[in-house]
């Protein structure tokens, strides 16, 4: 029987193991931590009974992942829950951009910009199920729906700031800017509209749900599915030398390119090793989890009903702060994402205490403490928030890397989204998962299609391994 070892038990490592196991391969997953999950783990922090997501929180690409749908994670205990409103972007004048799952409701809220919103996103939402799989594969492939992909392309190559100018009102401009800022890069360069378009269209198609019980429920379900197929999962097994990896026909690496180089760099072809060395990590996050008494006292009531709240001010301010941060400056008012998962999943709370998830965009490798900057940004749009804080857990760039070694310098997206690396990672190739070492493949979020708890990096990498081994069904 063909054997495989998967190094790393994050969502993509588990997905790779599942894809191999369902094709008859004997799979063993080796996870360094005591719990599988990587970026999709959850549990208590300072206050007993409060459930926090340790990294990923909302999952428009997860609930819509064709691979998770094929596996049927719901059969293994996964439940999704949706907030009443997916996302808001409050402004200093009290107005707010509101993103509903329904594109019609969003357009109605945006008023004079509603028609523009529907023109920009409507066809993407209607055709999402057919064209999205083309976008979620390596770029060097023949698209299955070329006309729909061609319609997406002219919008996707734009700088996000250009697309923002198509709206007449500040709530609409800010709303799109906040979604586009998930790319973790300056928004005034080409291709930065792409991720904002993709996340917005995915949200209108599937919503921005949370996993009931925490994001760890996604990977717990994936692990249960793998075990049912005969897969073996071993935790507490850090791999620092390839001699520690058991002999196997296939080795899948749910690791960063730098970690792959450390294990196999001396065996990789020189051109591929050079590409891995040139691979750039992205900007960093600074995460702050709060336990608060009651609800955040948002100035506008819509944010009190939203799962996600983007805090960054106007579209121009978001573009400015992201440009300064990308240049290495820690700004006074960084872009902050706030998660209120308990609104959709009340079981995460304990009595009158509620868990609040947040992180700020900070310069790469930022070594300071951004806790006060995060609190200040929340206070800006929710006066009185500070008085409700019961406990605070701050995780800086060093702490994020300790939590997950793939998060080099606090880079939670697996590599910079700028220049060609936005669409080509970790290198331009027909098979970007192959490392050049026979039987060894990269399957982390540093491979196509990139960050997100969708499992597609792992599933596609495993499919490439199966094809090369002549095992694809």
From TrEMBL:
It holds the Pfam family NAD_binding_8. InterPro entries: FAD/NAD-bd_sf (IPR036188). SUPFAM superfamilies: FAD/NAD(P)-binding domain. This is Uncharacterized protein. It comes from Gordonia hirsuta DSM 44140 = NBRC 16056. The lineage of its organism: Bacteria, Bacillati, Actinomycetota, Actinomycetes, Mycobacteriales.
């Amino acid at each position: 029987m063909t054997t495989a070892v998967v190094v790393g038990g994050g969502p993509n490592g588990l997905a790779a193991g599942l894809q191999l196991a369902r094709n008859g391969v004997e799979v063993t997953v080796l996870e360094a931590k005591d719990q599988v999950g990587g970026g999709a783990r959850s549990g208590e922090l300072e206050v007993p009974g409060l459930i926090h997501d340790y990294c990923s929180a909302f999952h428009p690409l997860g609930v819509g992942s064709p691979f998770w749908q094929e596996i049927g994670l719901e059969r293994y205990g996964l439940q999704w829950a949706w907030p009443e409103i997916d996302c808001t972007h409050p402004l200093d004048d009290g107005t707010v951009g509101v993103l509903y799952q329904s594109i019609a409701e969003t357009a109605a809220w945006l008023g004079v910009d509603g028609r523009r919103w529907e023109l920009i996103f409507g066809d993407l939402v209607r055709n999402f199920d057919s064209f999205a799989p083309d976008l979620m594969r390596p770029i060097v492939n023949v698209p299955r729906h070329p006309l729909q992909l061609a319609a997406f392309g002219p919008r996707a190559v734009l700088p996000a700031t250009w697309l923002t100018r198509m709206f007449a009102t500040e709530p609409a401009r800010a709303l799109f800017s906040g979604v586009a800022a998930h790319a973790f890069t300056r928004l005034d360069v080409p291709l930065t509209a792409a991720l904002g378009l993709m996340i917005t269209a995915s949200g209108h198609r599937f919503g921005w749900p949370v996993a009931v019980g925490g994001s760890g429920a996604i990977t717990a379900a994936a692990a249960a599915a793998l075990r049912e197929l005969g897969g073996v999962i071993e935790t507490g097994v850090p791999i620092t030398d390839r001699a520690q990896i058991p002999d196997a026909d296939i080795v899948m690496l749910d690791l960063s390119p730098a970690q792959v180089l450390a294990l196999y760099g001396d065996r990789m072809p020189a051109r591929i090793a050079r590409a891995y060395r040139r691979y750039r990590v992205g900007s960093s996050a600074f995460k702050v989890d709060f336990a608060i008494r009651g609800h955040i006292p948002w100035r506008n009531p819509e944010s009190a009903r939203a799962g996600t709240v983007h805090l960054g001010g106007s579209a121009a301010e978001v573009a400015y702060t992201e440009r300064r941060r990308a240049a290495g400056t820690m700004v006074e008012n960084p872009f902050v994402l706030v998660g209120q998962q308990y609104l959709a999943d009340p079981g995460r709370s304990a009595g009158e205490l509620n868990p609040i998830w947040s992180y700020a965009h900070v310069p790469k490798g930022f070594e300071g403490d951004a806790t006060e900057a995060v609190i200040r940004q929340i206070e800006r749009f929710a006066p009185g928030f500070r008085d409700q804080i019961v406990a605070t857990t701050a995780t800086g760039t060093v702490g994020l890397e300790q939590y997950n070694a793939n998060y080099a310098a606090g880079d939670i997206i697996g590599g910079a989204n700028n220049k060609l690396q936005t669409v080509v990672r970790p290198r331009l190739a027909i098979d970007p998962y192959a490392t050049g070492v026979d039987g060894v493949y990269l399957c982390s979020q540093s491979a196509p299609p990139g960050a997100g708890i969708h499992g597609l990096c792992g599933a596609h990498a495993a499919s490439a391994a199966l094809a090369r081994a002549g095992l694809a069904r």
